[in-house]
Amino acid sequence: MTKPLLSTLALAITLAVSGCAMLEPQLPKADAAIPAAWPLPPNTAAAGQNVTADTSATKEQAAADIGWRDFFVDPKLEELIARALHNNRDLRVAVLNVERARAQYQIQNAERFPALDGSVARNRSGGNVVNPGDYYSAALSASFELDLFGRIHNLSQAALEQYFAQEEGQRSAQLSLIAEIANTYLTFAADLESQRIAQATFDNQQIAYDLVVKRHRAGAVSGLDLSQAQTTIETARADVARYAGLVATDRNALTLLVGAPVEDSLLPQGFDLKVSGIAPLPAQLPSQVLLRRPDVRQTEHVLRGANANIGAARAAFFPSISLTGSVGSASNQLSGLFDSGTKFWSFVPQISLPIFHGGALRANLGVATADRDIALARYEKAIQSGFREVADALALTSTLAQRRQAQQALLDAASRAYDLSKARYQYGRDSFLILLDAQRTFYTAQQSLVAAQLAEQGNRVTLYKVLGGGWEEGTQ
């Protein structure tokens, strides 16, 4: 390679690098206007400490660093999550989107390198030509566009950022899938527990109703007492049927999320309060941890890609230089194609200067700028939405714990009241209506405690998700 050619190539590379720096604008800073820390309610950490499992893997770690196998302690739930990550069709589509984005980046990035093609041709001519007959040729041609102003580089960078965005989208989809499976699993367990309570209530009420029927036949109780006793039985019977339907639909939802049939051995047998565990959050948890969430990082990569597209749109205003060359052999006889004296070569540099495009170039730059501004607004909105999700989950951490404790106290009081009312009714101290009211209060308190426990467990999973945890399998 000659020295002038080396100098020319060095100059072209220098211009290309400087062109990229000049034409791609500086990435704008996001102004999400959120506080530096979340507004933690009073006693949030203390309340959370009372209801969470104390696992060594979750101490003094950010949620994004805690793998889902370390967060969830129920082996059945862990197995269901592992199966879903392998079989779920929505997650499979997200993985394929990553593969597609990777291939698109490779296509775009290939334009930064020379294209080399080989060709073999046979031409036949006749009529009033000078040399009629067959004409054979074999050639090797190369083409390359000098990226003086960074257009190809910026397009390649935009494709790369799109690939990164799809990767973060896959992680976000995985995080959402894990949280959805956990919530569905908890709902299944809660509905199963509610069904058990309703069935037990129905069985007890059936025994009590049979006694009331006998006493009514003996004339010891009125028809009003008999009708009131029947209302409690029918209410419990309706609840048994309702919760049976909910359990069936919960299993169908779990099967859809897992992407394969779920055996009975992997289903919860009751409502376990130790499904998940996370350490109490520090009092000064910074809001910057939002930037580690996959959905926020996805919008950031989209913003970077849109900013690179502005550089490509600006580069379209400047001349483009293409180099095309070929070398080969040509002969009017196939047997003499590679003989001496048949070689040929060509070198065709071409400069394209945009003169008039009817405003298309300026409009394209306007579209690229608008896309960048839209991506910036979406990035800021993603940060704001994430801040609100975490703030809501933190606000509910304390209140849900207080609600569960209150419901537990209410259930204890309702149980004592029911026992006392039943004893007083048997001794003729209270009417049957008072006993029925105590029964309904006790039954409602049981169901309300299950609902409070479900809400608390679900909020714990939500907090883990919104803090960016769940897309890694194990704690590193």
Name of the CATH first level of the domain at 19-113 and 149-182 and 242-319 and 362-466: Mainly Alpha
Total helical segments: 10
Termini, distance in Å?
Answer: 51 Å
Strand runs, count: 4
The CATH architecture of the domain at 19-113 and 149-182 and 242-319 and 362-466 is Up-down Bundle
The major β-sheet equals: 4 strands, antiparallel
Can you give the mean pLDDT?
83
Which residue ranges are poorly predicted, with pLDDT under 50 across at least 5 consecutive positions?
4-9, 16-21, 45-59
Radius of gyration: 36 Å
Subcellular location: Cell membrane
Family: Belongs to the outer membrane factor (OMF) (TC 1.B.17) family.
GO molecular function: efflux transmembrane transporter activity
Main location: membrane
Could you explain how this protein is built, in words?
Helix 7 (223-258) runs parallel beside helix 10. The protein is an alpha+beta fold. Residues 4-9, 16-21 and 45-59 have low confidence and may be disordered. The protein has ten helices and four strands; from the N terminus they run αααααββαααββαα. The longest helix has 67 residues, at 151-217. Helices cover 62% and strands 10% of the residues. It is elongated and about 130 Å long. The chain has helices spanning 3-23, 44-51, 68-71, 75-87, 89-109, 151-217, 223-258, 294-315, 360-426, 432-466, and strands at residues 115-125, 133-146, 320-331, 343-352. The chain has a domain at 19-113 and 149-182 and 242-319 and 362-466: Outer membrane efflux proteins (OEP) (Up-down Bundle), CATH 1.20.1600.10. A four-stranded antiparallel β-sheet has the order 1-2-3-4. A hairpin with a 7-residue loop joins strand 1 (115-125) and strand 2.
